[in-house]
Amino acid sequence: MKQRLDRDIIAARAAKELKDGDVVNLGVGIGTLCVNFIPPEKQVVFHSENGVYAFGRVLAKGEEDLMDLNLVNAGGQFVTPAPGMSICTFADAFDAVRTGRIDVTVLGAFQVSEKGDLANVVASEVGWIGTIGGAMEMASGVKKVIVVMPHTTAEGKPKILKECTFPLTATRCVDLIVTDVAVIEVTEEGLLLKELAPGWTVNEVQAITEPKLIISPDLKEIEL
Question: Mean pLDDT over residues 137-166, rounded?
Fold first, then answer.
């Protein structure tokens, strides 16, 4: 079985897209890990919809002495403070999104269409999975949307589709998809395959991607 990238590597690759001075929202799951992969020379302000600006890395097991019950990200993970950190209300945190003050969001998805439609909630036999509220705000209110996710479902079915079959969170909003096997840009012409995981071929990625991929003339192996 082909080796796939782990969650940390996906997050690290997505973090490469963040520019100095960006204000960035991190979604629950793989997205929250991006904060751990920002080099010291790059200044990125991380925003969380639960009301935290300018927080630092996610704390790991064994760092309980540094954990503050009042300082968590949207995923409930303990994070460190960062210079200039401020705390605000939910309303103020979402106001920043609605007024265009957030540059980038990095979030997960159940499905992405070839047009950049996003579906990150799903109805199941146990009810709705995912929270459409926050994701809808982010996908509609920020300047750039990066999706981080496994390329396929647990059953091996494509998550990048011609048309999403789950309810849409937002339409034509996704700019870049970083998965455990590829980096794909959403363009007006279609999905542009830009990078491959080590050991993977174009044909192998295409086989688990429903839409036809456009191959970048600069196609390369994923680099961190």
Answer: 94
